[in-house]
């Protein structure tokens, strides 16, 4: 799997400018890639003014994602503000080059910013298969909740995913939690983990230091980019992951459980 992480500043409440900026980065990638990961709310920054910026599903940004995926031959994923059925969602779109897509609505809404008063929480995880990999994309605050992120199956003897993604607008004052929990999620789930955050300051003056990272299944840091915009491309090895899992099958001792809601 050749993965690309796009860490960038974002224009506040300006989808046109953000799509143009991201498109320029995507078309200037130094190498072909299988998966392009964008930050959370990549068209606007992390905003509670959903009525001002929300898009209907399958409109402008959705079509842009479809175009980017088709032209690069890669899956392109990230979240933006979607209005559907009279509700607002912080919705991640998983867009494949053939136009097939899926969506994930952020499960854990950040109550300290009032996100739970504006947006509707998601109720399901998605696991996507791509290039022989199983990939679980999640959003920002989800990182703090290991049960939702857990690499589990009904009998706890197999794995749901090989790569766990987090797209985020995670602010600078809590960067220690971001860095620590990304590594924890990799270790406890015997999985690669990629976290893509933004940099700069948003329209509310909140600063972001990025710290976008790739971490392997042992918790070892493969890459981290701090404070400035960065495009990181790297190949991940499914064979190395499977070999480690066979030698260190900690999942066989995991506690079985069922999510009730």
What can you see in these coordinates?
It is globular, with a radius of gyration of 17 Å. It has one domain (2-253): Nitrilase/N-carbamoyl-D-aminoacid amidohydrolase. The strands form two sheets. Strands 1, 2, 3, 4, 5, 6 and 14 form a seven-stranded mixed β-sheet that branches. The chain has 261 residues and is α/β, with parallel strands linked by helices. It has seven helices and 14 strands. The protein has helices spanning 15-27, 50-53, 60-72, 115-118, 146-149, 175-189, 238-247, and strands at 2-7, 35-37, 55-56, 75-84, 87-95, 101-105, 128-130, 133-139, 163-167, 192-196, 199-201, 207-215, 221-226, 230-235. It starts with a strand and ends in a 14-residue tail after the last helix. α5 links the parallel β8 (133-139) and β9 (163-167).
SSE diagram, text form:
Blueprint: E1 2-7, H1 15-27, E2 35-37, H2 50-53, E3 55-56, H3 60-72, E4 75-84, E5 87-95, E6 101-105, H4 115-118, E7 128-130, E8 133-139, H5 146-149, E9 163-167, H6 175-189, E10 192-196, E11 199-201, E12 207-215, E13 221-226, E14 230-235, H7 238-247
Parallel strand pairs: 1-2, 2-4, 3-4, 8-9, 9-10
Antiparallel strand pairs: 1-14, 4-5, 5-6, 7-8, 10-12, 11-12, 12-13
Helix pairs in contact: 1-3
What is the strand content?
25-35%
Number of helix segments? 7
Helical content band: 10-25%
- CATH class annotation: Alpha Beta
Give the helices and strands as they follow along the chain.
Answer: EHEHEHEEEHEEHEHEEEEEH
Number of strands: 14
Shape annotation:
globular
Largest sheet: 7 strands, mixed
Q: What is the CATH homology-level superfamily? A: Carbon-nitrogen hydrolase
The number of domains: 1
Terminal CA distance reads 33 Å
Q: Taking Cα atoms only, what radius of gyration do you get, to the nearest Å?
A: 17 Å
Spans of at least 5 consecutive residues with low confidence: none
Tell me, rounded to a whole number, the average pLDDT: 96
